[in-house]
């Protein structure tokens, strides 16, 4: 798979923003999405978003991630539970993605 110039790789995101909160898509759409983007814009250096059927908000600090989780809900996401290869967009909760 090719990447656009300047696009971060999944491993670069995991290194730079290791504290990740997963929210179901329905909790990250419409008015809530705009509110979350505004909230996170204030914390720009510590935040990155991965969008799939589950939105994963990635933070550089645990405090930033915890504040976001308390405000919007969601649960901690471990990138090792993300699928590999063609299954990159799957989330194997509670298991390391060795598939």
Structural account:
By secondary structure, this protein is an alpha+beta fold. It has one domain. The protein has three helices and four strands; from the N terminus they run H-E-H-E-E-H-E. The chain has a four-stranded antiparallel beta sheet with strand order 2-3-1-4, sandwiched between helices.
Total count of helical runs of at least 4 residues:
3
The number of E-state strands comes to 4
- Shape call: globular
Strand content: 15-25%
Rg on CA atoms, Å: 13 Å
List the secondary-structure elements in sequence, H or E: HEHEEHE
What structural category arises from helix and sheet content? Answer: alpha+beta
Spatial ordering of strands, largest sheet: 2-3-1-4
- Please estimate the helix content: 25-40%
Please mark out the parts with pLDDT under 50 across 5 or more consecutive residues, or reply none: none
- Quick check: average pLDDT? 78
Largest sheet: 4 strands, antiparallel
The termini sit apart by 19 Å
Number of domain units: 1
Keywords: Plasmid
What's the short story on this structure?
Keywords: Plasmid. By secondary structure, the chain is α+β, with helices and mostly antiparallel strands.
